[in-house]
Amino acid sequence: MRSCCSKLCSCCRRKVEYKPRTVSIGGQTLSFDKFPPNVIRNQKYNFITFIPLVLYEQFKFFLNLYFLIMALSQFIPEIRVGYLYTYWGPLGFVLIVTLLREAYDDLKRHFRDKEVNSQLYKKIYPSGIKLVPSSKLKVTDIIQIEKNQRVPADMALLRTSEKSGAVFIRTDQLDGETDWKLKLTVPATQNLSSDQDLLTINAFVYAEAPQKDIHSFVGNFRLTDERGQITEIPLSADNALWANTVVASGNATGVIIYTGRETRSVMNTNAPTGKVGLLDLEINRLTKVLFAAVIVLSLVLMILKVSIC
Q1: How far apart are CA 183 and CA 164, in angstroms?
Q2: Are the C-beta atoms of residues 36 and 262 closer than 8 Å to each other?
Q3: pTM for the predicted model, two decimal places
Q4: Environment class of 150 (CB within 10 Å of its CB; exposed 0-12, middle 13-18, buried 19+)
Q5: For residue 264, how many other CB atoms are within 10 A of its CB?
Q6: Tens digits of per-residue pLDDT, 144-199?
Q7: Starting at the edge strand that comes first in sequence, how are the strands of the sheet with 21-24 ordered?
Q8: Angle at 224 between CA 155 and CA 156, to 5 degrees
């Protein structure tokens, strides 16, 4: 029984295994793995976990747990002191206010996520360009990003509107730095006459397994021309556009290589947690001290009463 429980726990704790992939330009990935959807979700709760998690966050502090135990103890007639509403009234009020506040904050996160996921981007099809919401983008898609537009997923940069093949991006939402970063395209694709020609070439992008480091990227661009001659170009972080960065100059065109939870941005984002002030922590500590003092004093009085009797 113990071995079965340990195996179950180990399976639950098992980390996701990320693998490298080879992405066809405008085609299909050569990997057989399924990639996560390109959906941003920063909510703390869902419909099922909302009340249990909020109550856990409240009663994991000894102060709130102490008042809950005191309120429950008043259902025992032998130790009841006063009326029930004097215990359950304040406790219920605090819990209701906390539930409403957490619901309001999580609802705001939901609307922010919905706004980001519904942003439209220009996706290149053989028949032309169509607008596609960010949540519908997937690995191998080739998209155009305009100036001051957010990058929706991790991409390999293929073309820009500048003849030099360079583009500047803002990364303040990713690493907090306000200076613009220079990114460079692959020369073989920059020299094409238009973005539409990307769908006609026989090329692949090899991308390393997803990882957190935003300053490092190991990849390879492989192009086979009409004569069968193969051209291979190594790719680095200078050739990649990470999600949640913003194009600061010109337009950029790239192929998506990572989506959703596999993007650098999401992998470096911590799950939202509740904030606890220093005053709350100090009051919680003092409550433990006072509770211990009450227990010791009660034991001393019981011992004295027994000895006198």
Answers
A1: 11
A2: yes
A3: 0.78
A4: middle
A5: 25
A6: 999 999 999 999 999 999 888 899 999 988 888 888 999 999 888 888 888 888 88
A7: 21-24, 202-207, 219-224, 230-235
A8: 5
